[in-house]
Amino acid sequence: CAEEVEGSDPYWATLLQHPPASFAAIPFDSIRTALKDRPRNLALLSRHAVAKLRKAAASTKSFTPMEQEAVLGAAAVLSRLLPVLFEQEHEHKFVENVFWYGKLPPSSKAGTAEQDEQDALALPLLESCIALLFKPGFTCSSVEEKTTGWYGSLAKSTTSGRSRQFDQARTEMLRLLLVCCSRILFITPEEYRKSENPFLSYLSTRPKEEASALFRSLTAVIFSYDPVGLGIPYSSAVMADKREPVVDVAVQLLIILLDYNIPSNLGKQGNSAGVTTEKMLDTVKTEANAPNTSNCFRNAVREWKEEEEFEFVFNGFCRLLNNPHQANSTILPSSMKQISCFQELLILFWKLIDENKNFLSYILRAGDINELVVPMLYFMYEGRKDPSKIGLIHICTFILLLLSGERNFCVNLNASFHKKLPVDLPPFTGNHADLLYIVIHKLMTDGPHKLDTLYDCFLTTMSNVSPYIKTFCMPAALRATNLFEMFSKKSKLLSNEQYPRYLVFTLEVFNNVIQYQYEGNPHFIYQILRRKKVFAELSEIMEGTGIDEILNKEAPQAQEGEPPRFKPTAEWVRSWATDLPVQPCLRLMQHLLPQLEQFCMTGNVNDEGIVVDFLKTTTMVGLLPVPHPILIRKYQQNDFTSLWFTTYIWGVIYLRNQQPQLFDASYIRLFTISYVDA
Fold first, then answer.
1. Could you give the count of Cα atoms lying within 13 Å of 306 in the half-sphere of its Cβ?
2. 604 conformational bin, left if phi > 0, alpha if psi -120 to 50, beta if neither
3. pLDDT digits (tens, 9 = 90+) for 386-418
4. Cα 529 off chain centre by
5. Which residues contact 656 (CB under 8 A, 6 or more apart)?
6. Alpha-carbon distance 393 to 451, whole Å?
7. Which tens digit of pLDDT belongs to each residue from 589-634?
8. DSSP structure class, residue 96
9. How far is CA 532 from the centre of its chain?
10. Element housing 75 (H / E)
11. Residue 421: strand, helix, or coil
12. In DSSP terms, which residues pair with 276 in a beta bridge?
């Protein structure tokens, strides 16, 4: 409205009677103009919208269709206003003054009736939203669901017609809560680390019963969703999927709530390394859940322990995360509905296995974890082609790294791989570990440079699983030894201070195969033996033969205008060269190469298959050094990864809320948005 309107004017009630969808069409610039020229009008509109929600939450009667429309309209108008109000909150403090202190902007009219200070809006808004999420006849069936969560039982959740009638109301109320938490988008990472988000702080400190009910409700909505239904081709093209919007906003809100750290808890993880090394026992020792935190939703996850519900959630993850590659593998093009919330689901899976060790133990013991490994590797393989999917590759990598620290996970990778993925994988017959190695090799040799920071995680995962894989196929063994050869090249080994570490990882893979799985891996043994020359060059470096000459020859020279490059020294080379774990490989070559050469010369053999068959008859029993303990490196969270996850979560939420556009990219400060040509 161009003119200032008094708070008692019936204009406000009339305005809120518009359909909820109409408020999403309000231009951002119109709200900014009102904020600049008529801030009091915006404050009064916000006040009337919150009052409408507050009255509805307090009502004990069922809503008429018109009353329900008015409540949803009030929620929709606030969902449209708040992102714009947050954009420059650091300058005008509108949300702080109006929503948290109850201060109205001064009136341009003399003798206005409203007081400049009234009740704050923030707490009534949040309390009303939560109350309305458990309003019988509006968002749930009965008052008991306020304690048990929607549907009454998480494991028996269904998408019945009765529950679908609540989806629109649930969507609007959940979206409003999500928007209330979105101020983080409009501050810098440094400001985020030092400041508190009062909306999120309030939500994350709710009573235990309230947090548990909301967690169970959101989880039930997400994992009762079946995008395919009866599997009728092209059904999604003729009938709109009315269930998807509530699933999308539910999973987005849940990961926001689980991610939030109240500022007093920020930085408590310290700056430790990304992985820690420990000795692997013969049996899995499941770690106890961490002590309770001040975040009530994390506590709800940690206290969750019903195995029937674990099964329901795990099956939901499998169904939903396999949907994208299944939808791209159909005979009839685009005949299957494809979900878009797979990144949010992966983040949620990460949060659940990181917070609840009982859930992690259950899915590794009773579930087929490969049903999740395959879609993650599919996302990684396809994501390397798309710069906007770098974050997707990161989250999949972190999940696989965490899982690789568990013995049961590694053993399960021995299961045969039979699925057909819609990607250009090399043909192979093998297991899921083979698929893992082939995908990681592709990412490291044919991926964007931005993945360089993940090399440590890639190789750690390969090393962690290697002692437990009974047989690697030839393509996987070839790619693993190719990585070793790549990191062993003097031109690279002596030009990058990280490469010696990468080389150690590949040698650990070799050693694990030789010492723990020799009998079933003739393909791998053959590929190691073929690298005789590479090991000879490594031995020269380890012995220090001509090291100064090598450094002078191989040291990279910085071009004019470039920052100074890493310059290796003889002391630096000696610091890692003498500790390279090459002894098992050298002992293998010392024993087998003469036998193999004699066999090939005597029989005039030049066929790889015959050589591999010969290696199956050999043994290294009693010839190798005493087997080293199986060491695994487990993921350990730190300040950097915590901030990365938060930024990634909000980046996904920004990208997924474009139709209609919920946030204006021009004002986002948490991350930089780059536009790439299609």
1. 10
2. left
3. 988 999 999 999 999 999 999 999 999 999 999
4. 39
5. 248, 252, 340, 341, 343, 344
6. 8
7. 999 999 999 998 888 888 889 999 999 999 988 888 888 788 888 8
8. I
9. 41
10. helix 65-87
11. coil
12. 634
